[in-house]
Specification:
Layout: E1 12-16, H1 33-42, E2 50-56, E3 61-75, E4 83-95, H2 112-132, E5 136-141, H3 146-151, E6 155-156, E7 161-162, E8 173-178
Parallel strand pairs: 4-5
Antiparallel strand pairs: 1-2, 2-3, 3-4, 3-7, 5-8, 6-8
């Protein structure tokens, strides 16, 4: 892999995961075995979501991957029915270990991951506007990453908010971002 000092030096393209691009997931390692396994074994055939690949064009290497699904946040009120807020769920966002911690440009404390996810937020805003009409982005952050998402404007669920009660999110921090 060609060594770079800053993330701004890496030309990338973003594309949907396909049978042809699936080969790139074989050598993707983010440091979390469950997430690595999802991208390497399950993402292509997952009927409940879509996965986008962020590809380093110079090295033709998978830099990051993002899996999205339709979701909702529920707001429970005493003696009333729950209110539903439509959302795009970030099921997975992971950056390959070779790119983690890479600063975006000289003098900037923010990382390539920060700039990349900021761009992906705008991509999700566009998806919402054109296709699904979601009011929020929701994610269930692994404990070691919630500060990263907080710096991008995500906030933890508050009060009577609740979402997915699946097993993978058991130790995760539920967070949301307002698209409006």
């Amino acid at each position: 892999m060609k060594h770079v000092q800053y993330g701004q030096e890496i030309p990338v393209r973003i594309e949907l995961l396909t049978e042809e691009s699936f080969r790139l997931t074989r050598y993707f390692f983010c440091g979390n075995p469950a997430i690595d396994n999802y991208f390497q074994q399950e993402a292509l055939d997952d009927p409940t979501s879509v996965t986008y690949l962020v590809i380093d064009e110079v090295n033709e290497k998978l830099l990051a991957a993002l899996t999205l699904s339709c979701s909702a946040i529920f707001l429970s009120r005493k003696q009333q029915l729950s209110t539903l807020m439509s959302a795009i769920e970030v099921v997975y966002f992971a950056v390959d270990v070779d790119y983690q911690g890479l600063r975006y440009r000289p003098g900037d404390k923010r990382s390539l991951s920060h700039y990349l996810f900021s761009y992906l937020i705008e991509m999700m805003r566009d998806i919402s506007r054109k296709h699904v009409g979601a009011a929020k982005i929701v994610l269930y952050s692994v404990p070691e990453a919630w500060r990263f998402y907080a710096r991008l404007g995500f906030v933890p669920f508050a009060g009577e908010m609740y979402g997915d009660r699946g097993t993978f999110v058991r130790d995760c921090v539920p967070m949301y971002f307002n698209l409006n």
